[in-house]
Design goal:
Elements lengths: L3 E7 L8 E6 L8 E4 L8 E4 L7 E7 L8 E6 L4 E6 L5 E7 L6 E7 L8 E6 L4 E5 L8 E5 L6 E7 L8 E6 L5 E5 L8 E5 L6 E7 L8 E6 L4 E4 L10 E5 L5 E7 L8 E6 L5 E6 L4 E6 L7 E7 L8 E6 L6 E2 L7
Antiparallel strand pairs: 1-2, 2-3, 3-4, 5-6, 6-7, 7-8, 9-10, 10-11, 11-12, 13-14, 14-15, 15-16, 17-18, 18-19, 19-20, 21-22, 22-23, 23-24, 25-26, 26-27
Amino acid sequence: MKKSASVSAGDIDNDGDIDIIVANGRHWPEYNKVFYNSGHGIFTVSKLLDHIAETSYATELADFDGDGDLDVAVGNDMAPNALYLNDGKGNFIRADHFGNPYSPTRNLKTADIDSDGDIDILITNRGKENEICLNNGKGKFTETVYFGTKDDSTIDVEVADINIDGKQDLILANRDGQQNYIYLNDGGLHFNQKIPFGNGTDETRSVGVADIDQDGYPDIITANIEEPNVIYFGSKEINYGRKMIFDPASDPSYSLDLGDIDGNGSIDIVVANSGSPNKVFLNFNKGASWKEISLSDEELHTYDIILADLNKDNRPDIIESNSDAINYYYRNKGVGN
C-alpha cells in the first residue's frame, strides 16, 4: 500500500470530467500517480506522474505556464519540489523545481498572491521558514518571498482577504504547540502585521476559510490533532474571539475541506482523521447547529480530503488520500438518499 499524503482534482486531459493526482511517499520515496476519469466517476486508467520516486507530501493542480491546461506542482520532504507541465492531453513533463530544494515541505497552496495575473505557489515547511514562489508568467519561479518565522511548524496555509481590503492575506495552521496566526498583506507582499487565533498551543494541521454564518465576514475553520475542531468567526474588528466547536471529538484530524454538500446553500465541512472515521458536518441555521455523519466505520490514516464533482451530477463528492490503505471516494447521492 502507498503512503498517500495528498490528492488534487481537475480536468487534466480537457475531456470535460474531473481527474485525480495522488502524491505518495511522505518521508519514503514512492511514485506519484495520475488517475483518469472515464466520465462517470470511474477510474480504470492510471499512470505514474514520473518515473522518479519522491518523498511527496503535497500536490496541487493549476495552469502555471498560462497555456490553458492544468499543470502539477509536487511538494517533497527534504528534496526538491517539482513542477510538471501539461501537453494539453494529460501528459506531463518534469519542467523545473521551485522553492528551497531541501526544506521539510508539508503543503502547497496555489494563488495569484501578487495580483499580476499568474498563479504563484505557497510552500509550508515544518520547522523552517515558509515560502512564496512568484511566477514570472511562464511557469518559472525564480523569486521567493518568505512569510512566518524561521522556526514555524506550519502544516497548512489558506489564502483569503480576511480584512476585506482587496489584498490576499495568509492564514497559518501551525503544529508543535505554536500559535496560529493571520498575516495581513500590505499590498507589497509584506506580511508584518499578524493576528493570533486559537488558544496558542493548538496542534492545527489544516485550516479553511468561508463565511459559515453568512454575516459578510470570513470565518476560519480548523482541524486539530487530538483536540476539538473549531470555527473562529470573523468580525469587523478582525479579532476572532467568537468561536464554536463543531466537532467535539478529540480525534487526530489531519485535513478538511469546505463546500455545500447537501445543496441547502450553506457551507458544510468534511474532516479527515488518522485512526478514526472520517466525518461530514452539515451546516444548519447559518452555523448554529451541525449534523455529524461518519463516512464509514473504517479507521483509516487519512492525510488529505477534498471535494469535487467526479460524476457530473452537480453534487460534490468526497475524495480521500490514505496512508497504507486504499484511497477511496464517496459519491454524493443527494438529500434523502
